[in-house]
Amino acid sequence: MTVASTAPPRLSVMVRLAAGRGVFRLASQVMAVALAVVWGAETFGVFANALGLCAWLLFVPTAAEKAALKALPRMRFLTADVARLVVWLATAPVLALLAAFTVALLMGPQGTVTLYLGTAVWWTATGLLMTMSGLHRLRDRPMRDAAAFGAMTGVVVAGTLVTWFVGWSPTAHLTLLLGGLLAVIAHSLYALPRDWVLGTGSGRKLLPALGRSTWLLGLSELLDVAALSTVYLVLAVTGRTTDSGPLYLAVLVASMAGALVLYQLKLYQPATSARLRGAGGAAGRARTFRLLRAAERGGLAFAAVMAVLVAFPSGRDLLTTESYLVLGAILAVEVAVSSLVMYANFLLENTNSSVLTITSVAAGVGLAATALIALAVVPWLGAAGGLAALVIAAAVKASALRGLLLRRHPELHP
């Protein structure tokens, strides 16, 4: 019987793991810049809009990873049964979307639907690889994580070079990348313990509890990324699809920082889950409350600065120039506020299962806030308005989560 490891990786291992994910992210950024040059603003804008609109699908398979990282360190005898369910919960959406993409590819290789289905498969399959890597870390084989994303770096670089020299279309480029990604996933799946992939056990009895935990743990992250997707949707609906390019390139930097923070949290999640179980949850909730208050105040200060800028014509002109310096300044605030909320949410989720409903509700509030603010400011501020909407919505989410937490735990009142 293979049991899950709760100890975080050694520092040297963590550096190599972060390097593996970091190089993959960096290669993706270089790919975006190269494709913008090869395809031009219009074609790249459509490609970037498809990637941005489907980005939330990454968190459909990784919801199972979060459930595994929380649940497996707390059990001894059902490890294989739970791991097996995690594998299948993460694999199912990839198989469904892959089948749809194959049909679309045969019927209309250059169609818009085919492109969007291809990006959907890319995000879900990447999430599946992350989940497989999380299971390898739980079985104390962390370097398989680094190896998998090192291989994906090679796939991205090779695919970008082919498209650069051959001039392939976005759909052809995605198809090439997906071939390499699926091969890496197959190897990672093969390397898992046999009883974590195949076998019989009490899976049906465990499915309702694990399914609920997976759904609620993944819902908050999914809604957070869906909030970003709504910004791309507003750009598309309002006829500003070309602005998706600058926004996507700017968000790549934020996503790299956010992914690094999230990855570090996942590396520590097994140990955190064990530490915050039972009585240890009180300290986790108290720290969550303080972090949320800081994020709320940071977002309020940012909103005040934005209000001053838009009140004057020169300030509005500065925001609508789409200068990467302006986008970078807003991006720095977004990374800071979102990281505070992310860490607070992480601590709260690992206290007990009863709080998962309020984290999901708060994420829904954040999604609604992003959509409303984006509708108000994106049509006339473009990419800068989209980033500003994300900052203010993150503060709204922090306020909602703090209020819900205080209602459930009044002892947190300062």
Quick structural gist:
By secondary structure, the chain is mainly α. The chain has helices spanning 11-54, 59-71, 79-107, 112-138, 143-166, 170-190, 203-237, 244-275, 281-310, 313-320, 324-349, 356-408.
Description:
The chain is an all-alpha fold and 414 residues long. The protein folds into two domains: 198 residues, no CATH class; 137 residues. The protein is built from twelve helices and no strands. Helix 2 runs antiparallel to helix 3, helix 4 packs parallel to helix 6 and helix 9 crosses helix 12. The longest helix has 53 residues. The N and C termini lie far apart (47 Å).
* Overall geometric form: globular
Largest sheet: none
C-alpha end-to-end distance: 47 Å
**Estimated structural class:** mainly alpha
Count of helix runs: 12
Radius of gyration based on Cα positions: 21 Å
SS strand fraction: under 5%
Structurally, the number of domains stands at: 2
Low-confidence stretches: none
Instruction: Calculate the mean pLDDT score and round it.
Output: 84
Give the H and E element order. Answer: HHHHHHHHHHHH
Helix content: over 70%
Give the tally of β-strands. Answer: 0
Topology, element by element:
Elements: H1 11-54, H2 59-71, H3 79-107, H4 112-138, H5 143-166, H6 170-190, H7 203-237, H8 244-275, H9 281-310, H10 313-320, H11 324-349, H12 356-408
Helix pairs in contact: 1-4, 1-5, 1-7, 1-8, 2-3, 2-4, 2-7, 2-8, 3-4, 3-7, 4-5, 4-6, 5-6, 7-12, 8-11, 8-12, 9-11, 9-12, 11-12
Brief descriptors of the model:
0% strand; single chain; mainly alpha; 414 residues
